[in-house]
């Protein structure tokens, strides 16, 4: 069973392709599936009329020094960035 499925949203995955309607499934804190999931989950969120953005990569950061005292790059996480390139 999945932990969470966000359904009926417009998925914008950062690939540069147009967004598409679908679901995002989460299991063990990670994205398990995208598209038409149709599986049971502990929790479901209806995102109808909203955008689902599974994560953003920030390829231009200046976290070089900050990562020594903030290994989670907290300001980026708070803005939805899931990966950085220091």
Brief characterization of the structure:
With 86 residues, the protein is mainly β. It has one helix spanning 74-77; strands spanning 2-11, 20-27, 30-35, 41-46, 51-52, 56-58, 81-84.
Characterization of the model:
This protein has 86 residues and is mainly beta. The protein contains one helix and seven strands, in the order E-E-E-E-E-E-H-E. The strands form two sheets. Strands 1, 2, 3, 4 and 5 form a five-stranded mixed beta sheet that branches. Helix 1 (74-77) links the parallel strand 6 (56-58) and strand 7. The N and C termini lie far apart (36 Å).
Continuous helix count: 1
Characterize the main sheet.
5 strands, mixed
Strand content: over 45%
H/E series, N to C? EEEEEEHE
- The Rg value, from CA coordinates, equals 15 Å
Report the oligomer.
single chain
Low-confidence runs? none
**How confident overall, as mean pLDDT?**
86
* Shape, per Cα inertia axes: elongated
Name the structural class.
Answer: mainly beta
Terminal Cα span: 36 Å
Helix amount, in percent?
under 10%
- Please provide the count of β strands: 7
């Amino acid at each position: 069973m999945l932990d969470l499925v966000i359904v009926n949203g417009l998925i914008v995955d950062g690939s540069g392709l147009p967004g598409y309607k679908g679901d995002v499934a989460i299991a063990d804190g990670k994205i398990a599936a995208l598209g038409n999931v149709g599986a049971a989950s502990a929790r479901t969120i209806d995102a109808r009329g909203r955008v689902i953005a599974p994560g953003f990569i920030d390829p231009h950061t200046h976290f070089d020094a900050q990562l020594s005292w903030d290994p989670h790059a907290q300001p980026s996480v708070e803005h939805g960035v899931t990966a950085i390139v220091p």
